[in-house]
Amino acid sequence: MLEQKAFSVYFDTLIKSNHKNYLKESLQNLVSHEIGPAMTVTVEDVIGFFENDGASSFSTELLENIDQAVKSILDGKVVIFFNEWNKALGYLALDVEKRQASEPITEPSVQGPHVSFIENLERNIGVIRSLLKSPKLKMEFFISGEQSQRKVAYCYLDGTVKSETLLEFKQRIALVDKEEILDASYLEEWIGDSRYSPFPQVRYTERPDTAISALLDGKIIIMVNGSPSILICPGNFLEFFITSEDYYYRTLFSSLIRLIRVAAFIIALLLPSTYIALSNFHSELIPTVLLLAILDTREGIPFPAIVEALIMEFFFELLREAGLRLPQPIGSAVSIVGALVIGQAAIQSQIASPVMVIVVALTGIASFALPQYNMAIAIRILRFPLMFLAATFGGLGIMIGFILIYLHLATLRSLGQPYLASLSPLDINKLRDALIVLPRRMLLHSPRSRHLYKKTPKGKKVQ
Fold first, then answer.
1. pLDDT tens digits, residue range 64-76?
2. Cα separation of 74 and 77, whole Å?
3. Whether this model's pTM surpasses 0.90
4. Where are the domains of the chain?
């Protein structure tokens, strides 16, 4: 009997260590089920079978050229070459460590699902498919990057997303195929309309319920293999104050929480500049008792209010970054202790007044109340120009800055859609569910579909 030489190529660090004899298993299956008795089978019969019928197993692939073989090896497959055969067999054997689903890190949940996406794309797709069992759910895939070869997927509900939005998205995402995409956030610059706007034009989530709600609301979500974050587009300004958890509570409480977020946005953006304008230009607007208390605390402070605010804001931002970069067990402790020590030392050394410390602390706390971290970053950026305008022109400067921000928001678009949709142009039906949470019985299809409650001719309510 002639011996047929064959060899296999694989990365030992990518495949299952106890399942390397794929050729033997494949030949045994072919002999017993496909070709015939083992005594009459030759190697030529096996090769002829793969040539004519292809690979019948879902984990086996017939490779036509060397490029396919190299890609299969890099994908974690065992590739087997036969002597005098210009093709090869690839066996799926990828086995790398995967993080188990846990509590969402950036979006902790008090009530509702306590599961998050992980870095495995197939698993994330399976979670979405299991929660949204609709034949209209469409998914498209592509490979990005010549070196990293990252698999990227985007999905949407056919008939729910606007056709012009989907077309615009596909035109932009087609430009990404050669870029090295290591995380979903790498795609934000390609999808957003304005690269230099401080306001985010996409949202991120680690929660499956948020992703499902976005799909039902006509959004497009993007997933990248190796990234636990899901990118949601197009973004809408009011949606950055909404969480899927709002619909897990009773309407009264959820509406109150949402209005508190709006107030937190205003405080985080305008509180330091308002204090600077009142103390420097409009002291007559402050009640006399409060004004005397502020003047008493500022006695001996060698800096004007703007310099004092900049110093305290710098210290606060420094502590914030230190708390994020340090290991979690000590990060929060360092932030709290550092804030207490620096604040007390600044007051005793008369670098800052107690009122300014309170203003900066309230501003920081208000920025933490926003659900989306990238919106909080936008506020941190815009806060400083408003402080300079307030120090220069007082209340007029704040008004000028606010008008400029509003004009920018009014002209900003996300995937061609107005960023201030439901506010401009005004849509009362959409706006009423954006500022307050409507009862679930008044929503027809999804938590944020904005469809109003309907009645049958007999007066019976239908969903």
1. 888 888 888 888 8
2. 7
3. no
4. 6-92, 121-235, 250-418
